[in-house]
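Input record (Table S2, row 183):
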Amino acid sequence: MKEMPASHAYRLLEPGPIVLVTTALNGKPNVMTMGFHMMVQHAPPLIGCVIGPWDHSYRALRETRECVIAIPTVDLARTVVDIGNCSGKEVDKFEKFRLSRLPARDVGAPLIGECLANIECRIVDDSMVESYNLFLLEAVRIWIDREREERRTLHHRGDGSFTVDGEVVDLSERMVKWRDLPA
Ligand SMILES: Cc1cc2nc3c(=O)[nH]c(=O)nc-3n(C[C@H](O)[C@H](O)[C@H](O)COP(=O)(O)O)c2cc1C
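Output record (flavin mononucleotide complex):
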């Protein structure tokens, strides 16, 4: 084994899939790319997200306390990277990247029609935002496009390269201790 910088832990552990986060501040929708997220609890479903104050989305999320986490697939790979390399402060990213805005049910932020799934979220705990830019969100509603053929998600390797979903290893029969997870 060779040593690698401890600061590169994220390159080994960064969770996937890469996601898009939509917000709407004063009625103006925006979208950013996010790799730093994790599930925290099954029920109610809680998701931890790191969104930095350098992002326009940070202000929108803090002020409106709601967002949508959209799950893109491999066909949107270049768009996903480009969305994460420009700011809603300067551009209307929905227009620039020709994304369809669909109305959400419980939050003001829009769903993205071109994504596989959209999770409507509300902040439940922002006590770690000042220290770690860490928002704890509750997923309040999920929409999924069951008709979609392309379902392979992208997993960020931390350096602008991505792993694309491949072979599925289904070991669900061995999950005997976890039969009672929420359906
Ligand atoms: C692959 C990728 C992953 C990213 N992950 C995050 C992240 O987890 N948290 C974050 O704050 N910014 C992340 N970014 C950066 C934001 O997407 C970027 O700063 C974006 O321009 C913010 O847009 P906004 O200013 O319109 O909110 C990522 C960017 C890319 C390309």
